[in-house]
Amino acid sequence: MYRYDEFDHRFVAERVAQFRDQAERRLSGELTEEEFKPLRLMNGLYLQLHAYMLRVAIPYGTLSARQMRRLADVADKYDRGYGHFTTRQNIQYNWIKLEETANLLAELSEVEMHAIQTSGNCIRNVTTDHWAGAAADELADPRPVAELLRQWSTLHPEFSFLPRKFKIAVTGAPNDRAAVKVHDIGLRMHANDKGEHGWEVIVGGGLGRTPLIGFTVRNFLPEADLLTYLEAIMRVYNLHGRRDNKYKARIKILVHELGEENFRAEVEAEFNRQTKLDVEVEQHELERISAYFAAPDFEVLPKRSADYEIAFARNPDFAQWVRSNIAAHRRDGYAIVNISLKPEGGIPGDATSDQMRSIADLADRFSFDEIRVSHHQNLVLPHVKQDDLYKVWKVLRANDLATANIGAAGDIIACPGLDYCTLATARSIPIAQTISRRFADLNRQHEIGPLRINISGCINACGHHHVGHIGILGLEKKGVEYYQITLGGSSATDASIGTILGPGFSGDEVPDAIETIVKTYLDVRKGGDETFLDVIRRAGHAPFKEALYAPAQRQ
Amino acid sequence: MTVTEIGKALTGNRLYDGEVVFLTRTGIWSETIDAAAVALEPLSQAALEKRGEAAVANNQVTEAYLIDVERRNGRVRAQHIRERIRALGPTVRQDLGKQSDGTGGGFAAHA
Ligand code: SF4
């Protein structure tokens, strides 16, 4: 894992001291709210419906056991014993007091964590594949590049006051698990004929009010040119991005307005104009960073573990969990363990401090001290020996963390919505909870197969509803919540934006509507191999519309 | 006969901890919506708003705004679901917030 050097330590400590002073001046009345608000936002502190909310950065979703324990301690000491893992691989605390925030930040800084650039019009936390460094299909671990980008973008003066917030995602695998096509910039690693790695640069994707799939501005950018090229993109954006209208300020709108060809020409011209950054330094720096991400000391193990196979054969619950929550590791004898934070009827992404500690202990004992946060609001133990899977499962199960529903109907993404969020138009969590209860039968979930249900409580789309196979958007009409359903979204390699199915539903009607949609899928599919998304892409919305709306029209 | 009074109350979030508060008749900020002063006419509503501006200026709350409420049998209910949730706590964690510590409003968020 990346470790802070002396500079990082000093910088974060200084930042805490600076914030402490700012908060004190605000509390004493020396600063007005208007003056203080941008300062607190630069430190991830929002004011939500019930209290302040602190968003803590988890760079590329990677945590050590020690950091996870500290997150648990913070939850107990400064919050109400839990935290919420977000779709940006971060964690949010919901019950923070302004007067305690500086102390909280000081405690985080002791474990090399902070809340800088989790808000504001800057380059936000760089996100990546939550299986990075472990996935069987990966070309190379994308995290050294993610860390390089973090260092490059942290407090970069030129990119601290962008027209709007800016999100970068990176993947080193052909199967996109980092949603690179729906970020401002998405980077996907490819290998050329000579086996050299380079980057596909995708620009202008995004969700929110205007959901768009990004376009590839470069197919294969040599790694050495990466920062220079990204600087060129940022400059074009900084220069031409719309600052006059918040809703048109994201780079996706610029790409859309300029047109892909013109945008590419601008970027290439800027790229050629720039004096190249000192590539030697960059390569050297990348090598230095890469050393932190060296693969752990994996044992040489047989492909299959006898212990694991015996447990698999004997215990159907364990077998079900393995089939659903375990992914293939790049090394023989190892596995990736996905921990579902979506128990039946639970709040997606919430974890109690005790759960965090139990996961930290598991990471310590069984996963080379590593934990990942996924943008699906789940956690991952990336490097577990197959021999240990049964033991890990038992601990997870005892902590209500072993629901076997990864990627299935119960694995719902939901933003905080109107239960916490000041921007919300409707609640999202209760909708997730009722759907989760409705589909509680795990056998049925597995019979349905891969199904991504994503819920947002407003058009800002933090719950990624546009890229849900089924997307649910909470809106309001005259103070009453209602929900719009979209079908056919995906954030995977074949990314697509879902489209609206028809008139909206009240909150009470949503679970039945989802049930009808799922039943229709099961009726229409040509066998178990045809997934929900396959059916939408083959048959379109028609059968679903018919099933949902026709009966009411006939009445 | 029960009289329902329809008017406006003044609310904000307390500066030092973000707690949801309501301005009372006596001019203090209370954590419970039932204690809120309910202004029935435009004039008294404008007066409430003025006091809100003063409270922002002297840093008691971060922002103060009027919300639509009704008072019945001494209990005050916010008209909009967002404000009802603020006056209670998250509907999905009824063990937390005002609803759990006795300062919640006398209504359900979604009713
Ligand atoms: S989508 Fe809207 S309601 Fe949900 S967290 Fe984002 S801003 Fe809040």
Descriptive overview:
Chain A is built from 18 helices and 21 strands. Chain A is of the alpha+beta class. Chain A folds into 4 domains: 6-109, Sulfite Reductase Hemoprotein, domain 2; 142-291, Sulfite Reductase Hemoprotein, domain 1; 306-398, Alpha-Beta Complex (Sulfite Reductase Hemoprotein, domain 2); 417-554, Sulfite Reductase Hemoprotein, domain 1 (2-Layer Sandwich). The mean pLDDT of chain A is 94. In chain B, 25% of the residues lie in helices and 30% in strands. Chain B has a 5-stranded antiparallel beta sheet. Chains A and B meet through helix 14 of A and helix 2 of B. Bound molecules: iron/sulfur cluster. Iron/sulfur cluster (SF4) binds next to loops of chain A.
What order do the helices and strands come in, and which of them pair?
The complex is a heterodimer of chains A (555) and B (111).
Chain A: H1 6-27, H2 33-41, E1 45-47, E2 52-56, E3 62-64, H3 65-78, E4 82-85, E5 91-96, H4 98-109, E6 127-128, H5 143-153, E7 168-171, E8 185-191, E9 197-203, E10 215-222, H6 226-240, H7 251-258, H8 260-273, H9 279-292, H10 306-314, H11 316-325, E11 326-328, E12 334-339, E13 350-352, H12 353-366, E14 370-373, E15 379-385, H13 389-398, E16 413-414, H14 429-438, H15 442-448, E17 453-456, E18 470-477, E19 480-487, E20 499-500, E21 505-506, H16 510-524, H17 532-539, H18 542-554
Parallel strand pairs in A: 6-7, 7-8, 16-17, 17-18
Antiparallel strand pairs in A: 1-2, 2-5, 3-14, 4-5, 4-13, 8-9, 9-10, 11-12, 12-15, 14-15, 18-19, 19-20, 19-21
Helix pairs in contact in A: 1-2, 1-4, 3-4, 3-12, 5-9, 6-8, 7-8, 10-11, 14-16, 16-18
Chain B: E1 4-14, E2 20-23, E3 29-30, H1 42-57, E4 61-72, E5 75-78, H2 81-88, H3 98-101
Antiparallel strand pairs in B: 1-2, 1-4, 2-3, 4-5
The site of iron/sulfur cluster has 13 residues of chain A, from loops.
